[in-house]
Amino acid sequence: MNKKEISEIKRQFTGERCAITRITGCYVDGNKEKKLIFKEAFLSLPEEEIFKYFELFKKTLSGTLGKNLLNMEFPLSQELEGGTQDFLLKLKETKLKNDAMLELFYDRVIASYDYGENYLILLIHGAYDIPGRASDNLEMEDASTDVYDYLLCSICPVKLSKAGLCYDAEHNAITDRIRDWIVEMPSLGFLFPAFNDRNTDLHSLLYYTRNPEQLDVHLMDEVLGCTIPLTAKDQKETFNAIVEETFGSDCDFETVRSLHEHLTEMVEEKKEDPAPLALDKTEVKKLLSQCGADTEKLTEFEEKFDGSVGEKNAFLASNVTNLRKFEVKTPDVVIQVNPERADLVETREIDGRTYLMIEVNDSVEVNGISVHPLKRSRD
């Protein structure tokens, strides 16, 4: 799913566009015991509750693609009878009205989700009547031909509110505040099936994690069964390792600056696309070649890429480079340069030692104090 498709689903979480038919939930304590199970027709809830739920569902579809939101595919084995995709598909087809299947879903989440505190499993069913689009990309509500039938799961921590004092208006006094169990914003969730090309894609789902560096691999494996992607941090570390191994001793300052400039150009060219720029094996090889990688090393690169990333997988450009920062770091010094002016930094050898040279002008500050760029002569 791309940004436009995610936004289209999020727009349903309003009073005017709501396509949610049913909501179910299971409140679980820190001992993995079910304390409460509920199920309701969504629009029968009080209006105040509906809008609070909308905020939780919107959050489950928020964040950065490739970091908080991950497009994941089911391997064929999980689409066979008894597989995770097969189970989710059957659960969706019940429209959350089959208590036995709901109980089984809760049990699977509880068994695989290693949290240790109280949390709430929310599950909704929606039926979105997909509007057609005119040639100018405007929606045509009366031209719908397909319905996107989906489940959205949100797993929300439940925390005890902080102790404190409060004003008791009834008794006109300052008293001890009553502590409540508060449902917080989701820590993870998923949308099944994916809404790709503005229609149902039963072979994929969209996974949400509040912390991009802490994917719940056990839950992803046991409940979803999808191929688990590299985290944003792992993508950057893997990409950096590939660059270092491919260039070897030729991986110098100029090479990395050239790499950064090429990546910046590529992202700039695709900035209007709703999908983030993906760098597959072919794109990465081309990029390394443009920066001067040796032909023999590029052959070794292909094997390295297949082994660490996967032949059919890709890096996201936003995960492997920071377009807003160009940083040079040594054990004792860190220099941050405007990415558009990386040309101000160069390497130079003086008296057999290598130095980083930075061009300066009349505007120089040290610890916030304006200084003259040239040292004054002393008697």
Q: In angstroms, what is the radius of gyration?
A: 27 Å
* Assembly context of the chains: single chain
The shape, in one word, is globular
Low-confidence residue ranges: none
Could you give the distance between the termini?
69 Å
> How large a portion of the residues is in β-strands, by DSSP E?
25-35%
Tell me the number of strands. Answer: 22
Helix-strand makeup class: alpha+beta
Count of alpha and pi helical runs: 10
Characterize the main sheet. Answer: 8 strands, antiparallel
Protein name: DUF4317 domain-containing protein
InterPro entries: DUF4317
Molecular structure report:
The chain is α+β, with helices and mostly antiparallel strands and 379 residues long. Helix content is 30%, strand content 29%. Strands 1, 2, 3, 4, 7, 10, 11 and 14 form an eight-stranded antiparallel beta sheet that branches. The chain has a two-stranded antiparallel ribbon with strand order 5-6. Helix 8 (281-290) packs antiparallel against helix 9. This is DUF4317 domain-containing protein.
